[in-house]
Amino acid sequence: MFIMRRKLIRLFILVALVSFAFLGRASALSIDSRAVIIIIDRVTWAELAASQPSNLSHLAKEGAPGLLINRTAGPRTTSVRSYATISAGTRADADADAGRGLNPRRFKELVDLNKKTGYRAQVGLLSTALRKGGVDVAVIGNADYRDKDGRYILGREVELLGADKDGRLPPGRKSLIYKAPGNGSISTDYQQMKASFSRLSTPASLVIVETGDTRRSDMTSTKSGEKIAPKMEAIARADKFIGWVAKDLDFKRDMLVVLSPSMPRESGGLTPIIMAGPGIAPGLLTSPSTRRPGLLVSLDVAPTVANVFGVDLGSQNSGRLIKTVAGTTSFQYMAQQAHDYLLSEELSVPITIGYSVAEAFLLVAGFLGLIFIKEKLRSAYEWLRLIIIFVLALPLGVFITPLLPIAYANGATYIGLVLLISAVIAFSAWRMSDKTRSPIIFLTGSTTLFILVNLLIGAPGDGKSAFGYTAINASRFYGMGNHYLSFLLPAVLVFALLWAERSERDFATLARPLAIILGAIVFVVGFGGLGANTGGIIMMAPAFTLVYFSLVTQVKPRHFGVAALTTLAAVLMLAAADAFFPSEPTHLGIVTRQAATGAIPAFIAVIKRKVMLNVGVFNYSYWSYLGLAAFTALVVWQFFGKRQGGDWVLKRHPGVAIALFAGTIAGLVGALANDSGIAIMAMLLGYLLTIVLYLEICDSFTRE
After folding, report:
1. Most buried of 206, 469, 482, 487, CB within 10 angstroms?
2. Which residues are within 8 A (CB) of 44 and not within 5 positions of it... i.e. 6 or more apart?
3. pTM for this one?
């Protein structure tokens, strides 16, 4: 036994020594690595697809391409804001003056500006962390601006990528500034750039290169009237330099990132990013920030570059490590994907306006018509039914359309498909023999089923849906969006309770099985690996708890306390599961981990940001008008409901009355707990009140 123990001890020591040796070797490989970020600003995937630069094409095959979301803390994405965001690993803001270099006063202004955004961005986080980890940082920039003596100087933007948290560039690794003369034109001198790069790109270094020409080509002329090379020529020259850099890198150890931090002027969308290096296999770039193939945010660049050297950016970083998934990587495919995302972004506003205006008009006109001109509406009864059913089918039409590739041909095709699909669904419901409850059960059941199945298979319809995550301006890109959530909650309640009413089931006996189903939906919506919607937990849990009490007894004040405790328990359970079990936690998991390590300001920052976003949504969203219309209809219904007595619609359909009560609670809570604010209240109440209007019209004209 003793001999056996000695052998086990020796084996353990041998394994430990081998492990330490391996770890030491891995650490050495990591610290000796090189990383390069090359900026080709204001370039689109369509331009790369048209020019087919050979070196970038080879890099995309050896590494992986992606669509870069350059969302910043500012109202409009600019190069300087993108540079500040990349350097911070968190959405950052910067003023519009990019013509002067950094100095302590101006950098302090930048720091103060970002304290007001709610994102707690520490500009210069990447450079600071790398330098502490023993990694040199250098910046090679182009000269876009002139000083008072007429000399070309380095623009402020690229300095933000190399500056540390105090606004200082690394000592002895100063940015290079230059202008290439020749034939009266201004362009980057790639010979000087190569010489500078050879000197600065050493083991354990990050070199950031701003090529400059692609950005200048987006301008019509300089202030001094000098000529600027065309965009395709600028791309070709940058491509040659990128090929020269790539030949000297070992992608098993070194990383090369080529990206465009902003779109050309007068355009919007997603910009190109191509990466090669450790952890980047052939395929499409993605990250836990988006969970969508080919899609990642600029916040992800900093932690991914730092990870090459084994450096952790800490809790102030919001980005995630970039990885790859299988997928088509041709430039034409990337250009088409960028087009599809941009089209869905552009159509989200007219579709939202169209739906909200139609529903608002229908609610106000419908309830007022029933009160004041009821007899005149009798002859148009069937048309009224069809119109209301069509409006209720519109959300499902909007959800389904993005799944059809033909939808992205152009805007007219997309909207036409939404209307056609909605019309087919509405006509199917309208033709049902039971004209009162069956159409609503069919519509709400279909909507519930689609939303849940779509989520369980990875939510393929959300990314390009007018009611889903618009990739260009979304705050997050995976799980269940607030628009889908705002239709799921009322749809599942009305479906279950109206079905029970039609089948003449006792509500009390339905309470327990329904509570289990609703609890499962809360889990699906809130769990990080599925819906990942923290606001959904907060708005669903109290509403569903009150639904249970409404089914078994009369709701009392103490039941609201129980609902609050149920909600707190659900949030804590899902937060713990999200933070400590998955390897890629959601925002809830990250905030929980930060709080566990003592970073309580993370909660304060989240609350502050949500308040700011809610105010903005209320002031500028078209959903505000639908919300006001829904409240107006609700007040009108309450006032005249008392005059109608027991004959009023919700007396005849108690299940819908419970759904409206729970939906109102969920809408109020959701408006406070989610970034979308009033939009959630507007969608949820609008959908429920449209159902109430339909039932009232059917009951009024079929019972008489």
Report:
1. 206
2. 260, 263, 264, 267, 269, 271, 272, 335, 338
3. 0.84
